[in-house]
Amino acid sequence: MIEQVMLKRVIYITWLSVALCFCWPVSANTSRNQIIVFRFFQIFTIISSCLGSLPMFHSIYLHQDDIVIVAKSISIMVVLIQLIVQTTICAIKHDTLQHIIEEMITYMKEAKQYEKKIIQKYVSKCYILYGSAIIISYLTTTIFILGPIFLPISLPFYTEFPLSLNNTAVYIIIYFHQCFFAYQCSATVCLSIFGALLLWFVVIKFECLIMKIQNISNKDMMVICIKKQLQIRRYAKEIANCFRHIIFYTIIATSFNMILAGIILIMNPLLVIKIQFMITCFTALIEVYLYAWPAQYMDDMSKNVSISAYNLKWYEQTSEMQQNILIMLIFQKPISLSINFLMPKLSLRSYCAYLSNAFSIFTALRVILKDNSI
């Protein structure tokens, strides 16, 4: 019961963390009116993000000679586009995501004792990192939107508007819109936790299947395991299809923001600005890692299923059992997150390459700017 409550809490906290970007699908039992309202908020989020980018363009146009303001505006616009892309993809994939989550909840309710132990093992492994990511994301945003109270700035985002902010009503509307958008940015970052939750669930299902395979004693159990393997692989591919383009844009967006942050940090600006862009770099690195860690486990576990079948001392089995083992070995290609010609297989190895490339870019920028200053 403790294990079930723990996983229920994990699912609830994850849902809560992404609620503001409206990417978590509604329940299958939701009424038609509630679905219409949910769709309205998704469209509102996309339109609001598009409108939010207009002041950024205006700021870039007015302050073309100020690299810090330009970098800040572009960085915010990148996050705005990320919010639009993620919300759009989740709206298109709504029914698939709904099916994926319903299956996860059903599995949790019907889990056997050994499955609950495996679930608890992964909850204990991951909750500190992912819980800390949620807390830091929303805490940073809260500090950010309280900036006008403690600093000589009028709004959380430095933007230029073609209208006067001296009007109290106009100022309040713009301020609360920026606050809402800031929290939506946090929800956008937390979408990586939503994706990671589903990937970890696939890992759990693969490990439970491996335990079943290790205890196979007859042909009927083998047939059940083969069907289970195909079902889990199909489920994993559905998750991969939902998130591969989101992850692809996340990598592009975070890489671009890290380059901007690197340029600003090398130029030796004020300490406050340095801290802001260092937080941007840290967020970018964490956001990609939150996907890469479970993606690596899913890749390994999908291969381990076939390995566990091969380790059954097949040479001592009947010819019919050997044929079934061969069928299971056919499906040994690992399930991975990738896009042909665009994104290599996401793993801890590719994440290390991502880190290496980021530091190489920083070094190159430092050399270029140093040469220009001589």
Please provide a written account of the structure.
- With 374 residues, the chain is mostly helical.
- The chain has one domain.
- The protein has helices at residues 2-18, 32-62, 67-92, 94-110, 113-145, 147-150, 168-214, 219-266, 271-310, 319-330, 348-373.
- α1 (2-18) runs parallel beside α5 (113-145), α3 (67-92) runs antiparallel to α8 and α8 runs parallel beside α11 (348-373).
- The relative contact order is 0.10.
- The model is unreliable at 1-5 (pLDDT under 50).
Helix and strand topology:
Elements: H1 2-18, H2 32-62, H3 67-92, H4 94-110, H5 113-145, H6 147-150, H7 168-214, H8 219-266, H9 271-310, H10 319-330, H11 348-373
Beta-strand portion reads: under 5%
Q: Give the count of structural domains.
A: 1
Total number of strands: 0
Radius of gyration: 24 Å
Helix content estimate: over 70%
Low confidence ranges? 1-5
- Number of DSSP helices? 11
Quaternary state of this entry equals single chain
Summed up:
This protein has 374 residues and is mainly alpha-helical. Helix content is 80%, strand content 0%.
Defining traits:
single chain, 0% strand, sensory transduction, odorant binding, olfactory receptor activity, 374 residues, disordered N terminus, mainly alpha, receptor, membrane
